[in-house]
Amino acid sequence: MAAREKPIPVTDALSQPFWDAAKQHRLVIQRCGECRYYNHPPRPVCERCSSQRLEFATVSGRGTIYTFTVMHQPSVAGFEDEVPYINIVVELDEQPLLFMVSNLPHAEKDKIRIGGRVEVRFEERGPELVLPQFRAV
Amino acid sequence: MWQGKGKTAIVGIGYSELVRQSQRPLGLLALDACRGAIADAGLSPQQIDGLATYPEAPFLGAGTRDGVDIVSVAWVINHLALAPDVRWYAQIETGMIAAPVIEGAHALMAGACDYVLIWRALHQPRSYGAFSGARAAGDAQFLAPWGCISVIQSHAMAWRRYMHQYGATREHLCTFVVNSRRNANLNPRAFFYTKPMTRDDYFAARLIAEPFCLFDCDVPIEGCVALVMTSTERARDLRHPPAYIAGHGLNTVSRPSLLYYTLDDYVACGQSLAGKLWSSASLGPDDMDAAELYDGFSPSTLYWLEAAGFCKRGEAYAFIQDGRIALEGELPVNTFGGSLSEGRLHGMGHIAEAVLQVTGRAERRQVPGAAAVCAIDGSPMLRGSGIVVTRDP
Q1: Which phi and psi angles does B350 have, rounded to 5°?
Q2: Do residues A100 and A123 share a domain?
């Protein structure tokens, strides 16, 4: 049986700017035009002040490892050949608890620690899909 | 104090078989449990005029076929010869299985019905927990392409954070898992009834999502547990001593909609529930003779111990050591083996055991003189519900 492909994001009106920017190797996060709060995933109204005035802002792409796991049993089809694979939760520098998830290469397993610094890179996963991925710095 | 304290009671418990994969459809397992609970109460199905359940199948890509994937109120009405005119029902969408018990108590107090039947049925398709779609829509688009979307990952990462913050280790968690297994070895219904577990067994188990191994995860089983509730007045005439509903709590904390929920979210949500639980029952953690605390993954129970005030924040991993939570300890916890060792019944096993304990029906697991026991469901993140049951009204 052919290996399953990893899932492809289904973009929507809210998320389109995020994915379009990723194609240009830029990391953008939805930000409230009223209270300046970052919302991720993008929301129809601001999670903090309920404003509808939302825009996208380019962020530094830097953050710290908030927590992590090593997956020995894939939880998503398409990752069967990658176990054990690493998932990290990145807390972006822009705001406390502003999280993204990422993978790390397995070779970096012994270097992962909570609080470790990471920086965004971009993975070309296909002609139409570029995925922000963080790497240790 | 809740004005309903001691005014309603659980009067019957019924179980279907609890197995990894059943040859029988879920709907029939539910009927087994429902008939069992009604008979245990000494009633007939025709006397049941109220129904409540929490039917959700709690996994990614779950089906909704009635009688196969879930068992709804409508399914039970169609397949069980109940009172000719069922007077009241509730089908709860959030809050886990104690929520229908709470609604049942309210309905009985309001005189909406006389006898309430409550059940929780769960089946387990082979693909449990895996995201199998080729396309990830909604919030999943920010998770699944990285292979990071199942509940085990968020729980494993919350526990990693706990270890980091408080200095807990897998050795500490192992104590909890082995204690649960020891209790399950006294529970003939438990999936692991005949299988003892040593600390070495725990450390030999394969890793699933570090730092979790296989035995940190509850056992996916198929089955159903049902119970019957009625007013305290009616309860006195039935077959077994009643377990009185002394108090209840729901989690009503709203957290910002984050991509990932933190350890702080878990405990804050649990505290919201526990505060209401204790104030409504006019009892506190020190009054509990045992605690049945949800354990979808092993650390969930530790978060509940902290959120409900059995110990302080960051101390549960130490609190559970040295036999304190054993059957003969200061606070017996998950006396039936919990979801980790009896099987995943999504909190209904915890409620049933609390009832058996305060009514002196827990057989070899009986905590001597148990007069008040709490059963709390949920992770405790975002949703959860709990009750205190007592021997005396």
Answers
A1: -65, -45
A2: yes
Q: Specify whether A35 is located in the same domain as A95.
A: no
Largest Cα separation within chain A, whole Å, is 52
> Using the 8-state DSSP alphabet, how is residue B131 labeled?
B
Chain segment A17-38, per-residue pLDDT in tens: 999 999 999 999 999 999 999 9
Quick one: which H or E segment has residue B338? Answer: helix B338-341
Q: What is this structure's pTM?
A: 0.96
Q: Are B344 and B191 spatial neighbours (Cβ–Cβ below 8 Å)?
A: no
Q: Can you state the angle between helices B151-166 and B298-307, rounded to 10 degrees?
A: 60
CB contact under 8 A, A6 and B145: yes
ipTM of this predicted structure = 0.97
Examine residue B211 and say whether the peptide bond preceding it is cis (omega within 30 degrees of 0).
Answer: yes
Helix (H) or strand (E) holding B184: helix B170-184
| B interface test, pick of A89, A92, A122 with most B CB neighbours within 10 Å | A89
The neighbouring-strand residues paired with B249 are: B386
Each residue's pLDDT tens digit, B272-287: 899 999 999 999 999 9
Task: Tell me if chain A has a CB within 8 Å of the CB of B160.
Answer: yes
SS3 assignment, position B249: strand
Domain that holds residue A54: 13-59
Q: Do B134 and A5 touch (CB under 8 A)?
A: yes
Burial class (CB in 10 A: 0-12, 13-18, 19+), A43: middle
Q: What domains can you pick out in chain B, each with its CATH number? A: 8-127+219-390 (3.40.47.10)
State whether residue B115 is helix, strand or coil: strand
CA distance A124 to B129: 27
Helices B298-307 + B170-184 axis angle, to 10: 100
> Going by DSSP bridges, is the β-strand pair B207-209/B372-378 parallel, antiparallel, or unpaired?
unpaired
Asked if residue B97 lies in contact with residue B348, where contact means CB atoms within 8 angstroms, the answer is yes
Interface test with A, best of B141, B163, B213, B262 (most A CBs within 10 A): B141
Q: Give one word for B291, left, alpha or beta, with left for phi > 0 and alpha for psi -120 to 50.
A: beta
Which run of H or of E encompasses A85?
strand A85-92
